[in-house]
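Lab notebook: predicted structure, single chain.

Context: the supervisor wants predicted structures on file for every construct in the current expression panel, including those that have not yet been purified. This is the next one on the list. No modifications to the sequence; it matches the entry in the shared construct table.
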Amino acid sequence: MVLNYIWVAFFLLAFAMASVRLLWMGDMEVFPAMMNATFDSSKTAFEISLGLTGVLSLWLGIMKIGEKGGVVNVLARLLSPVFCKLFPEVPKGHPVTGSIFMNIAANMLGLDNAATPLGLKAMEQLQELNPKKDTATNPMIMFLVLNTSGLTLIPVSIMVYRAQMGAAQPTDIFVPILLATFFSTLAGIITTSIYQRTNLLNRTMLLTLGGACLLVSAIIYGFSGMDKETVNVVSTSVANILLMLIIVGFILAGVRKKVNVYDAFVEGAKDGFSTAVRIIPYLVAILVAIGVFRASGAMDMLVGGIKWTVAATGCDTSFVEALPTALMKPLSGSGARGMMVDTMTTYGADSFVGRLSCIFQGSTDTTFYVLAVYFGSVGIRYTRHAVACGLLSDLAGILAAIAICYLFFG
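Prediction complete. Output recorded below exactly as produced.
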């Protein structure tokens, strides 16, 4: 429903802006430019979707091997002590803990198709513990904030889009996204814990969060002492090594579990093909709307207004052109993806703005969509502090993404 309003608003605002330019400024080219944008954008959307097929099939095939090889279960066991502290109101040993662990682990591995059903199952089990069936409980809100904060170890789709858009090193945003999504998740955990008065000052949480903060601080400190060229070389090399280790690790896990890794890969690769085909209409819809919005001059006016405001404060304005992706992300994943692709198309995949839009895309998740789907699945009407915590997590992710992008690519 939110995306429906956004899509209609793009066209209405574009038409209004074009009408103003025609009637007041005598710009006779604006409507032809808008129509050309519809054709160009729809062609671009189809070409992108078609080009995604091979890489999506590759990665979803690898992910399927990891799933069948028990990698998700291993992550669940590793996360178990931490989540017991984050969900103190869930009875120890309740089946919902398994669903929560599996959902978070699947999200971290980028297994969207597996994560959503597991998440819905977790919400149903949490609803069984809920004394007020129309009101969100503390465990529900913490669970959803962990989802909306977007903690992801492998941002497969973003790297795939960068490859399709001609990036010289599609994986160069791997480490920056890891750092940005860490800060988003950390902010989500802290803000939700404050609202819920959950005690984070215990040995397990202090060791986990403190250790993670020290590791991230060490990474940032290490990169801050390098020049730009060295940063690019090191981050890209580390990203490629980690990704190759993940691929080999997943295959070895499948072999250890006596999984037919070839058949598992083919099974997952089939999903990759169907996924690439399935996103064509969605990508066409959103890219056409954005193309019209940009051709009308409305996008330039919006970005110009933000840039003027930022410049008035004396800050650098290089990041402003990427902000539409960040502003769209809490509302719609496909809308933000369209903004990301549009930004890379306009400014280049390897530009500062193009890279920042990718980091924005990977630093958080679609807050309102996640809340609507998960709460709607169990009939929750009163969400309490879920929206506030989710948006504060998004804000932390956006600010972290900007700072980290300047560190790596500025």
